Please model this.
Amino acid sequence: MPAIVQDAITIAMMAGTGSLFLVKDPRWAASAPFFLFLLGGLFVASSALPGTALTLALTGAVVSSILWLSDYGLPSDRGQRLFDETDWGLWGLGAVFRLSVLLMALAGVYGLALTAPFVELPFIPNALWYWLLAIGALLISHPRYTVSAGVGLLLVHLGFYVAFSFLGGNSSYWFLALHSLVDITIALAVAYLAVPVTEATG
Amino acid sequence: MNHPGVLFLAPVLAAALLLLLPRRIAGYAWPPVLVALVSLFEIRWLLGAPPGIAWSLWGLELRVVAFNRWALALIYVVLGLALVIHGRLHSERGLFLVGLTVQSSISLALLSSDLLVQASLIVASAIAIAFGVSGRGRPAGHSALCYLAFMMVGGGSVTLAFPLIQTYALAPDNVSLVRVIVVLVALALAIATAAVPLHFWLDWIGAHGHRLGVTIATAVVPTSTLVLFIALTRGQSWLWGNDELVTVLVYLGLLSIAGGALAVALADRPGRLAANLLVLQGGYILLAMSTFSESGLALALWQTMVRSWGALLMFGCLAAAEVGQGRRKAEKRTWLVSGASVAAVGFGLGGLMALGAPLTPGFVAPWLVRQGFTAMVPWFDGLALLASGLAYLGLAKGFYFTFWVPLKAGKAITLPVDAQVLLTAMAAAAVVLGLFPRSLLEPLYRLSVAFLAAK
Model:
């Protein structure tokens, strides 16, 4: 893959994942996996099995559909949702502040990829992996919706797959299928958790 | 029927049957019977399977060896008993579906010769378990999310170790690469066994999660990850007994014993107390494993088995107490003993097992580990004694408030007779195993010797 295409995909993925922390609309969070998995598949295509990009794109489509259904398929007045969906913590501090947090995270990831690269990973995949882990951890620890926590889990999983592919992991179609199965199961689990619940019955 | 694929297919077929049944039928007593039959069939198949023969399932090589036979038998027994007991207490069809899905995927995982596929299937099983953990409350949902996050990190780290191990084979002088591999492999084992400071998932699901989900989570993922860890490290002579790996496991083990005991003493609810007792017990698994010897391996397997049994007893009895107290009918004395006595004795025994009290099966591993570690870590005896003292205090406090006070206040616990019989039988099995530990410890030792000699 030409370096410029790889750079463009990396920038698009970083911007796309970063936007998950800026945009409050849950529909954006639910749609993101499709685009991110498509881009992630293209990114690893040169070092992974043939058909990986298509498999990841299809997985992303299924995952996004499940997350969309979990957002809109259920009435919200039947109980309490897993998260309050209010502007708490960093979410209450305004878009400019959240953008500055993202820029600081970007600077941190850039510095870490330069000074402490993971084993022998090239710079671009290394920076992307660190970035996916950072944004995933941020979304899991600081979600506004159940869906955004789930997208955080999916980003962490995608990050591990990017690093695995560029480290030259001898993967098989069984592994690729199971990777997609894990993503879809995460989406199903998150959709289940997004069902409004009644308090103190667990 | 001779193909090990039946171990994967039988639970899938049972789950499909359960889904197709009308809800009014599936809610009654026969789903536990179906699960018990599937578990018995699978155990029977495993015991009769010829070892070492390779089968193919859609291109995936499956093989029954002594090691995965032991692990699968343990998982089938614990899963089957947990599903039957909790199914009788909660009468929810979803629980059976979760259990059967886990049973199916973990069978394929442990039989697979491809360790990467094995790791992925363990992660898939962990995600399926999250459905069982989540229950129907908000804190339970949060704890399930936390469990998912930890399992993703554990699964991801072990997955990354595979290409690095292949890289190391090409550049055996790369010391920093070994260090990264050690960290990744130890991280996966530490998360699965809930070693301090990576134990928060167990603490949270123990406090808030559904009791069945917690039981399955503490039995299935740690056991299968331990088998994966042993197979992965044993396959690489430079990793088996690596000094840095030993050091990391010893420190994690000591931290788990100290941290687990402290958390038991400070526990604010019985589920958290039971979970942290399992954290403490996990410390001895890591210490035993850190010796990388036949006896250490046998003790790690023994402790894993005892830990699963303790989880089954403690969380089964807690669920019995919680569900049984909520029933409207007055307590009916059966031909056995009262439901309250069964739940209280079972929980107390499970707790004593977990903290390693003498004459229980939980005593064996801490005692033997202590003999090996006193020379290496001079303050180990002091730490173990202090940890035991704290854990006894915590268990006594938890027992007093969970069982003693409600019973004194006249709150009855009504349990189905079959659940009472099962809980009593499990407690009796624990007592027998505590009195005659050699009956199982010696076969495990022979298994470890044969496994290490084979490579």
Notes: DSSP finds 18 helices and two strands in chain B.
